[in-house]
Amino acid sequence: MQKNTKPCYYPEYLQLNKLLDAQHPESTKYGAEAHDETLFIIVHQAYELWFKQVLHEIHSILPVLSQSHVDESNISTVNLRLERIHRIQDVLVDQIDILETMTPLDFLDFRDYLIPASGFQSIQFKEIEILLGLKSEYRINFDKKSFYSRLNEKDRNYLMDLEEKPSLFDAVEKWLERMPFLEFGDFKFWNIFKDAVETMLAHDEKVLKDADYLSDAEKTFQLNDLENTHATFDALFDKEKYDELKTQGRFRMSQEATLSALFINLYREQPMLNGPFRLLQSLVEIDEKFTTWRYRHTTMVLRMIGSKIGTGGSAGHDYLRQTTQNNRFFRDLFNLTTFLIPRSALPKLPDEVIKAMNF
Question: Which sites bind heme (predicted)?
Fold first, then answer.
């Protein structure tokens, strides 16, 4: 049933007069237009439109996960919106294929007219990074020094104010810290999980020592590796050791949040944990897809300009390679697989805990 009282006209609804009149190549100001500059502009404008939609989704998710109590039905909505971000990220990567139809010489026809414009100055992408949790203190050194230096005062102040506010990383960390099932009455999960880990590692050590097919050197190497694994597990259960590694940057989430995330991964088949598990996996996927996008962007830049510096003054390809490897949002969730043990070794939960986790 029609609800509008005034007819809606397609070009006006989409404001196509503004949108289609927003491509003005810089090259025309200095002579003949460089043909591929229009493609360059449209692809980057499309990026900014998709960034706007990603921000729209994050701004809807963040208040939900920031509440002191998050209802299960809200987790479902959050997961659907995270899934939408995944699909947008796929499009962001695919757009690079279109941009790579431009050859390096085509790019050089207009590149020098763009100085000092740079992707550094994408306020929306910086906002996405900050809202997901990549604030200045967690960036590579070049970013720490130059993250704001290429922005005008208004944009710089806006982003600096945003850094002082809770991010999605912060909201997820606090949400995980509140999970009630780690201690339930007399049940303390980490006591029995620690025993299961000790049994598993002791078995692995015996297998290695009894392995006649390994040379002494191979045994020594693998036993040392097993000892390192043991030390990593010890830090998981020992708050003092954990906080020391956190200070060193090995962990970012609190011990409580990491343990809760691990519990969710280990017992994801339980009805009440299925939605939270999907949420954690979605955050990992967002991180992975942005890493893929950064990598594709890095290889495209190498293909286009080789080892030249970027138009914004960065080291070009080398800088982008470093951001691909280091500018991550949810590294702790990626690393949870370090602490997974086989289902056959997983402690059985008490009946009262299983009952509490059923709707």
Answer: 297
297 is an annotated ligand-binding site residue? yes
Read off the pLDDT band of 2 (50, 70, 90).
Answer: confident
The verdict on whether residue 43 carries a ligand-binding annotation is: yes
Lowest-confidence region among 80-94, 226-240, 323-337: 323-337
User: What sign results for the dihedral spanned by CA atoms 59, 65, 67, 72?
Assistant: positive
Rounded percentage of the chain residues whose pLDDT exceeds 70: 92
Taking only the tens place, the pLDDT of each residue in 158-192 is 999 999 999 999 999 999 999 888 888 888 888 88
Closest CA to 264 of 284, 245, 246: 284
CA 28 to chain centre: 39
Is 233 part of any known ligand binding site?
no
CA distance 47 to 44: 5
Q: Which pLDDT tens digit goes with each residue over 200-238?
A: 899 889 999 888 888 988 989 999 988 988 888 898 889
Here the tokens at position 339 are: 């602490």
Q: What are the boundaries of each domain within the chain?
A: 34-356
SS (H, E, C) 178-220: CCCCCEECCEEHHHHHHHHHHHHHHHHHHHHHCCCCCCHHHHH
* Contact (Cβ atoms closer than 8 angstroms) between residue 123 and residue 155: yes
Q: What is the pLDDT of residue 81?
A: 97
Q: Was 42 annotated as part of a binding site?
A: yes
Long-range contacts of 24-31 (CB under 8 A, 24+ apart): 25/110, 26/110, 26/113, 26/114, 27/109, 27/110, 27/113, 29/113, 30/113
